[in-house]
């Protein structure tokens, strides 16, 4: 979690920002296809965490996935 003041001058991507128009982003689509939904609070956080991991390491190792 980050205070808004700590994000000043930085780009922020929201869950909705992963979409391309009306099309889900790749991670969002994978969650749909794999029935990976949980509650309305958990799922967005998990999607954003997975997106961040894949942006940092497009082909993460098992250890990177476990840490992520």
Overview in brief:
Helix content is 43%, strand content 0%. It has 3 helices and no strands.
- The helix-and-strand class reads mainly alpha
Q: Mind summarizing the main beta sheet?
A: none
**Element string (H = helix, E = strand):** HHH
Percent in helix = 40-55%
Helix count equals: 3
pLDDT < 50 stretches: none
The overall pLDDT average reads: 93
Q: Give Rg in angstroms.
A: 13 Å
Content of β-strand: under 5%
Please give the alpha-carbon distance between the first and last residues: 15 Å
Q: How many distinct beta strands?
A: 0
User: So what's the overall shape?
Assistant: globular
Per-chain topology:
Blueprint: H1 26-33, H2 42-56, H3 62-67
Task: Provide a descriptive summary of the structure in words.
With about 70 residues, this protein is mostly helical. It contains three helices and no strands.
Defining traits:
43% helix; 68 residues; 3 helices; mainly alpha
């Amino acid at each position: 979690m980050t205070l808004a003041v700590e994000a000043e001058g930085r780009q922020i991507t929201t869950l909705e920002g992963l979409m391309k128009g009306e099309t889900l982003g790749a991670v969002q689509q994978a969650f749909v296809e794999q029935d990976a939904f949980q509650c309305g609070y958990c799922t967005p956080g998990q999607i954003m965490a997975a997106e961040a991991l894949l942006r940092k390491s497009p082909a993460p190792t098992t250890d990177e996935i476990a840490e992520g």
